[in-house]
Amino acid sequence: MRKRILTGDRPSGKLHLGHYLGSLKNRVRLQDEYEQYLLIADVQALTDNYENPQKVADSVRDLVLDYVAVGIDPEKSTIVLQSKVGAIAELTVFYLNMVSLNRVLRNPTVKSEIEQKGFGDSIPAGFAMYPVSQAADITAFGAHLVPVGEDQLPMIEQTREIVRKFNNLYGETLIEPEALLGEQPRLVGTDGKSKMSKSLDNAIYLSDSKEEVLRKVMSMYTDPTRLKPTDRGHVEGNPVFIYHDAFNENKEEVEELKSRYRMGQVGDVEVKQKLAVAINSVLEPMRLRRSEIEKDQSRVDEILRNGVRRGNEVANETLERVKKAMKIDYKF
Ligand code: TRP
User: Fold this and answer.
1) pLDDT at 187
2) Is residue 39 in contact with ligand 1, taking CB distance under 6 Å?
3) What is the pLDDT at residue 25?
């Protein structure tokens, strides 16, 4: 049997190049090696967007389009809409007995999110508990591996603790998952500041047009110490060259640009124009696949329907085993 792999995304906006580099690209590869599940985590997205449900609802279809655009094949990967899998919610309730309040609030990712969001004394309980529901996501599908970035490691650790406690108390029932840490560091934003993100308005989206890509690239932050093209430039840590390394397939061109940049023999305009061409050639096949499926919303419905059906089969089977282990598989 092929090993199971699960990843999830919160539907709360369009996906960008950072998502592509950090995980989507990997998923396209992994779908051939593993039995892959992709969870559209709308219930989790509501934990911090409950006041804005329309955004979450609208993003569900966008996410399916992004998946198909990057090359996720819904026949190979199962795309599951979380809210349609009731077993996840039930498992969450049972797992809440396996963790202490203190432990959840000590989860480093949750802790820093709570600070960022400025909840103060009124932390929504649903938000604080989302790692437990994420443990339910992972175990519901019996995932062996969870490909994640650095910030999600505490979620996997917490899941492993819940699984161990459950299995100790009720007998071997759940699979203890492992994190598969991606090797890509987070992609910087076009502004050169921290990571690419929608809220920082420094993202290039997978759904951006050719013109938008060119416009965004031309206004990218580069080496601030370089005032004219004849000044010697810095390549290391320069977002334009970070992107060249990440997206330009023509490595010779990249090396040549770098050496001219270092010697003060190339202008930003040329470096950026070539970058826009490189990014657009990564995005072009995605645009083609997107425009195909965008025309056919009934195909999107079908993908969601099939994913929900297959997802429920697996998750319900886990739920039954869990209930049996917890002695609540009453028969009457
Ligand atoms: N917490 C993840 C994020 O914010 C999304 C997610 C939900 C997830 N359920 C998951 C990731 C299960 C991996 C496995 O990106």
Assistant:
1) 94
2) yes
3) 93
> Does the CB atom of residue 137 touch ligand 1 within 6 A?
yes
Most informative mutation of 4, 10, 30 for ligand 1 (most atoms within 8 A of CB): 10
Q: Ligand 1 centroid vs 256 CA: distance in angstroms?
A: 40
Of 176, 173, 172, the residue nearest 145 (C-alpha): 176
Q: Angle 52-56-57 (CA atoms, 0-180°, nearest 5)? A: 110
pLDDT at 61 (0 to 100): 96
Distance from Cα 148 to the centre of ligand 1, integer Å: 8
Number of H helices, E strands in the chain: 15, 5
Residue 307 · residue 78 · CB < 8 Å = yes
Using CA atoms, how far apart are residues 249 and 25, in angstroms rounded to an integer? 14
Q: Are 181 and 168 in contact (CB under 8 A)?
A: no
What do you get for the CA distance between the two ends of the chain, in Å? 35
Residue 6 beta carbon below 6 angstroms from any ligand 1 atom: yes
Using the Cα atoms of residue 184, residue 189, residue 191 and residue 193 in order, give the sign of their dihedral.
Answer: negative
Confidence of residue 104 (pLDDT cuts 50, 70, 90): very high
pLDDT in tens, 167-208: 999 999 999 999 998 877 889 999 998 899 988 999 999 999
Task: Give residue 41 CA to ligand 1 midpoint distance, Å.
Answer: 7
- In the numeric block, which tokens belong to residue 108? 């480093």
Q: CA-to-CA distance for 199 and 204, rounded, in angstroms?
A: 12
pLDDT above 90 for 108: yes
In the prediction, which pLDDT does 151 show?
Answer: 87
Q: Output the CA 140–ligand 1 centroid distance in Å.
A: 13
CA of 135 relative to ligand 1 center, distance in Å: 10
Residue minimizing CA distance to atom 10 of ligand 1: 8
Q: What is the pLDDT of residues 263-283, one digit of tens each?
A: 999 999 999 999 999 999 999
Which atom from ligand 1 is nearest to the alpha carbon of 137?
12
